[in-house]
Amino acid sequence: MKAIRIAALVWGTGLSMAVAHPGHDEPAAAGTNSGAGLPEPKVEITTEGNYRVIRANGLPDHPAGNFPNPGNPNSIGAQNYLFRMPLHPETNATFTPLKRQPIGVAVNGVVFDPGTAEYWNNDPSSGWHGEGIIGGHSTLGMDRNMAHVQPSGAYHYHGVPAGLVQSLPGTGRKLIGYAADGFPVYTQTSDDRSGYRLKSGTRPGGSEGPGGKYDGTYTQDFEFVAASGTLDEANGRTGVTGEYPQGTYFYVATEEFPFYPRMTKGTPDPSFQRKGPGNGGGPPRQGGNSRGPIRRFDRDSDGKISKEEAPPPMARNFSSHDKNADGFIDAEEATSLPRPTGPPPE
């Protein structure tokens, strides 16, 4: 077993509050965390059989912004991440969409998680999913690393992490992490151009949508235009890199949308699926009997029940169980559900 161990200091924060991705635009947080009490950042990258395994506490090894702040009222806290991915990943004929989960993990143990819990009218079924970086400017209390904090304390990157990139040696294309399918994630060069473009015209209005010009506020404001860039729909391409002299498929963290892939070219490892409220990945939480209804109705295996997955009686009372109004019934919220009987739905 080969291992790489990295540890560095980071400065912490103070109060913790239980709101993720507040639904309003705030200036990006600046400065350095000034609180005390956090352990040192730790990440261990090992080779175990045919897998690369990353264990980390998710604390950044570079200065982070002030958290809590007006746009993000959560404090950074240590996590218990355990991710694994194939050492020799293979591409698939079709892309695999990723929903509400980290798309990968940086070499410093901080996760790449570009999605938000923001929706038009706070309705996940609306089809309009809010973005965290709009017109090149971060929202939701992000710092200069295009990062902020979940209620669990998980610090995570929505865009290119300036602090991490600057700390890595060399120039040009830099390896900053690995995606959930095992393919590497690199920084952008002048040869890397996203194929996503803003749609022309205006969004549907009324009950069909938020109206207004397509400006990047929502994920659905963008469309992929084949051959308009050098990157594919997953923000990836094939080429030779310093770490892969024989060539490989790899993803690119771009300054423009989609910033990180929203889908994978290979098969994502289940260790990246979100296992509990605010948990960015790693081992499932233990204890409780709420896994019964989750396991029963969770057809896409993301650890939660969406309204589309819910049976009619649950769907009719969905909002009463979805306490945080994020469009899902998670393991903690599932404790309020009646105990299921009979065979699971087909």
Largest sheet: 8 strands, mixed
Strand content: 15-25%
The low-confidence parts are 1-36, 276-280, 282-291, 340-346
Task: Indicate how many domains the architecture comprises.
Answer: 2
Oligomer: single chain
Gyration radius, to the nearest Å? 20 Å
Could you describe the 3D structure shown?
The strands form six sheets. An eight-stranded mixed beta sheet has the order 10-11-7-6-12-13-17-16, with no helix packed on it. Strands 1-2-3-4 form a four-stranded antiparallel beta sheet, with no helix packed on it. Strands 5-18 form a two-stranded antiparallel ribbon. The protein has four helices and 20 strands. It is mainly beta and 346 residues long. β10 and β11 (155-157) form a beta hairpin. Helix content is 6%, strand content 21%. It has two domains: 1-286, no CATH class; 291-336, Recoverin, domain 1. The N and C termini lie far apart (42 Å).
Keywords:
single chain, 346 residues, mainly beta, Recoverin, domain 1, 2 domains, 8-stranded mixed β-sheet, 6% helix, 21% strand
State the gist of this model.
This protein has 346 residues and is mainly β.
Map the helices and strands:
Layout: E1 2-7, E2 42-48, E3 51-56, E4 81-86, E5 96-97, E6 104-106, E7 111-112, E8 133-134, E9 137-138, E10 147-149, E11 155-157, H1 162-167, E12 175-179, E13 184-187, E14 196-198, E15 222-224, E16 236-239, E17 248-253, E18 263-264, H2 291-297, E19 305-306, H3 312-316, H4 318-321, E20 328-329
Parallel strand pairs: 7-11, 13-17
Antiparallel strand pairs: 1-2, 2-3, 3-4, 5-18, 6-7, 6-12, 8-9, 10-11, 12-13, 14-15, 16-17, 19-20
